[in-house]
Design a protein that fits this description.
The protein has 202 residues and is mainly α. It has one domain. It is built from 8 helices and no strands.
Length: 202
């Protein structure tokens, strides 16, 4: 029943040889390159911002990084416990993006970007979380559209993201102050020349 629903949804989304070439190119860009917003935003929010907001920003970034580490670990564990072939491995639908024939569920891209969006929604601003959630949905769509994932792989990524944010918040409640103090100390040591020049925030 669930597998039939998965296949039906896949066929509704998956591109075909008759799909517009321009749309396939856009989908490839979204599927491969849009995920780079994750490290980019982490670096920007850690290094720059209004002085009175830096502590809050960095705490949010640390919690987000913790959630990302947890989600990647959970995704790896789930993928090995419940292996599932990708559509093109099963000879299902059409594939327009080269990808290794590894485990499909849950989607690593989907897990990371949904975790990132949920982290911003929970710990930053509602508007920023919603914008990132739209980008996450675009990435999820593109990878199904191009034939490298099933729709339920993306739903799995969303659920893993929710669990990861919850576990990150629980860990932060227990060890957050210590983690922040250690990481901030390490940052000040490593970036001391740039901080003195005023290129990045203290």
């Amino acid at each position: 029943m669930i597998e039939q629903l998965n296949q039906t949804l896949f066929l509704l989304i998956n591109a075909t040889p008759q799909s517009p070439e321009w749309l396939i190119k856009i989908a490839i860009f979204i599927a491969k390159d849009l995920i780079s917003i994750v490290p980019l935003l982490i670096a920007i929010l850690w290094l720059w911002g209004q002085r009175q907001q830096m502590t809050a920003q960095r705490m949010m970034i640390i919690k987000t990084a913790m959630a990302l580490l947890i989600c990647v670990s959970l995704s790896w564990i789930i993928g090995h416990i419940f292996p599932h072939d990708r559509p093109f491995v099963s000879g299902f639908g059409y594939n327009f993006l080269h990808h290794a024939p590894d485990d499909s569920f849950p989607s690593d891209h989907g897990t990371v970007i949904f975790t990132f969006a949920l982290a911003f929604l929970l710990w930053h601003r509602v508007w920023s979380g919603l914008v990132l959630f739209v980008l996450a949905c675009a990435i999820a769509w593109s990878r199904v559209y191009l034939g490298v994932h099933w729709p339920l792989d993306m739903l799995g990524g969303l659920l893993v993201g929710l669990c990861s944010c919850l576990l990150a918040q629980m860990t932060w409640n227990l060890f957050g102050k210590q983690i922040y103090a250690r990481l901030h100390q390490a940052y000040r040591f490593c970036f001391a020349p740039f901080i003195r020049k005023g290129w990045v925030r203290d």
